[in-house]
Amino acid sequence: MGPVTFFAQSRVFIVTGKGGVGKTTLSGVLANLAARHGMRALVVGLGTPGVRRQPEAAHLARLFGREHELEYEQVMLLSGPGEGEVNARALRPDTALVEYLHLHGMRRLSRRLVSSGALDIVATAVPGMPDILVLGKIKQMERAANSGSPGAPDVILLDAPAAGHAVRFLQSPHGLLEAAAGGPVRAQAEEVVEMLTDASRCQVLLVTTAEETPVNETIETASLLEDRAGLKLCGVIVNARFPVLALEAPEAIADEIGSLASRVGVTLEPEEEEALAASAQVRLQRQASEAAQVARLAAELPLPQLELPFCFSAELGLDQLRGLTDALEGSLQHWVPVAS
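^ that's the sequence the OP posted. Answer follows.
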């Protein structure tokens, strides 16, 4: 499957996984791949009311060689001749509420909330309200994109909360449906649930690493998102997979390393051979462990898998972004979508 066909599966892709597995990086890589094939991609992060600096937003901007503080209004991270665009923005419940009030003719009320300092309180007072405000904005952008509004994104990538929080976040519209008998809150919840449960409009991409705890959490999260929130799972991205060492005789690693060194004209001291052999043993153990976890993931969660390599770099920037995008595009060639 090519990237264009992959992104045509849905308009909104929700990217989630255990904290620390690289979901923000993956959101950027997916957006870059879409732009590489002429699409307008929008990465949406979730901001916290009253918090200016969001580490995830700064990381996303640095991937594209920028130093932006992402705000409610979107900023362009990438645009080039003959290519698409990557834009990004941070959605917060308080700013989403102000926009909602403006759209419904209540500008005076919104100004009072801002001037009195009560905006954050109102936006977060009702359980589930912060989530429905943000998801309602996602729904609005998705509708604009489907209707062909000028400048609307072709692909919306929601950098969702970490797995446990993501389940509550995406389940909250269902809770509001039960709590609200009528009115604008219930109408908004109904529309959001319609979007989330329509696979042609919204799907989930799970991100994990090939380790026991992230794989366990990915399997559990997948079940909860399907059962409680009714979402379609697009697939799993196994991030930061170590390259496979081509050592054919693990029991004779030292001899093999010496042979490889002599082939390329390098002379190793005995202690150097010993250190390299010990390092290779550790890598082979990790290699076997990763393979076992990936196999377990496939057995317990029968979804298509993509793999991205580990980046041996302290900081991720444009070079790493391009390399990861190349790897993702190559991995997509073997992608077989889940039957509806």
